[in-house]
Amino acid sequence: MMEYIHIILDFFQVFYIDRFSWWVLLIPLISSVVGWGTNKLALKMTFYPLEFVGWKSKSGQPILGWQGIIPSKGVSMADTSVDMITDKLIDVEEQFDRINPRVIAKEMEPRMLDLTQEIINEAMREELPLWKLLPEKQKAAVFERAAREIPKVTEEIMQEVKDNITEIFNLKQMTINHLSNNKELMNRMFLDVGDKEFKFIEYSGLYFGFLFGLAQMLIWIPFGAWWQLPLGGLVVGYLTNVLALNMIFKPAKAYKLFGWKIQGLFILRQKEVAKEYANIVANEIITMPNIFRAMFEGDASDRLLQIIEQHVNESFDHTAGFSSALIRITSGSNSYDRIKEIACRRLVAEVPEHIHLIFDYAQQALDIEHTLSDKMSSLPPEDFVDFLRPVFQQDEWKLLLVGSVLGMAAGFLQILTV
User: Fold this and answer.
1) What's the N-to-C CA distance of the chain in angstroms?
2) Structural domain boundaries of the chain?
3) Residue 255, pLDDT score
């Protein structure tokens, strides 16, 4: 037994004590800084710069330079992020079913009454000179019929919009367009929600780098080959990133180890993340202005305007009442049709300008923020990690390559210090 102890002591004497120099203590310290620096830079390069910086060919193709991984993958990253919203969190039909058409009609009524009276007056004066000679009582009767029709037609329009909402409103397309055209917002969505996880990745480089540096030091002392430090730097840069990424997302399901709950760090914060994510999405992406702008200006806007126009046309006939017969007798059917066309076209054009009147109620009824938060909080861990995982998954090899190359470069610099 003593013989083995002497052999071990002789080994340490020859390979460590006799070759030890105080400067080798710098190796784990430098390795720690390298681990921190490579992780920090890799994260920065994930999100910045927003636009390509470097040299491009005459055709505009990048030759040498860099653009943040997330901004460079704008459309595909937005598409991946939106899949969670549309597939697992928001059901458009279910959300719009919460809207009460009668409340919408009540919210719009005061302005629509004034607007309708104004439009009827203009159309009549333009096409029917006799309108100004018509007794005020007769005009008032027309306006009164309009007042009765407005709430009814508004309610009918809203009900038909609800019944056909998937034809009129494409949530996925709206969200993708908004995110892909706003790289800063897409960056911020990930950075704010994953703030603690990104800080962990950054600072874990210090701890893991130090531990790997100790191993590096123990290998360097007996051998001292020049290539050990660059190789060690490469390994440190690679492994610190790999370990940090795995600790964020794995294990998906919690288990106990010596009384400690072990689970991916991101998953442990599921409820907190859900609230932060819901706040950003509801207040900056799926907002009432964005929703109704997409409905009135999107690919399916013709369908919405068709619904409005159809109901307005029918309502105009009811509103005109006796006046329609009078107009046809005195001025001909063409004149009545022109008045109707002018009034309907003007009213349909004015609706988007005044739709903001229902924003407060619609926001309260749709309740996007609470819906997102509640549903995201209750997602299975395997589905929940799909929100942040794509940030790294699509080009994870680039992050690992950057970390490895930077670590190797730092290893070459280390040679100068030792």
Assistant:
1) 38
2) 92-169+285-366
3) 75
Dihedral, CA of residue 264, residue 270, residue 273 and residue 277, to nearest 10:
120
Q: Give Rg (Cα) of the chain.
A: 34
| Beta-strand runs (E) in 215-284 | 255-257, 260-262
What 8-state DSSP symbol labels residue 58? Answer: T
Classified as helix, coil or strand, 65 is: strand
Report the C-alpha dihedral over residues 113, 115, 116, 121, rounded to 10 degrees.
130
pLDDT digit string (tens) for 222-273? Answer: 776 778 788 878 887 788 778 877 888 777 777 776 767 777 778 888 899 8
User: Which pLDDT does position 359 carry in this prediction?
Assistant: 93
Q: How far apart are CA 390 and CA 300, in angstroms?
A: 30
Closest CA to 117 of 145, 76, 153: 145
CA distances from 343 to 70, 134, 160, 315, 324 (A): 49, 19, 22, 11, 13
What are 158-174's pLDDT values in tens digits? 999 999 999 999 998 89
Helix or strand or coil: residue 272?
Answer: helix
Assign 3-class secondary structure to 172-211: HHHHHHHHHCCHHHHHHHHHHHCHHHHHHHHHHHHHHHHH
pTM to 2 decimal places: 0.80
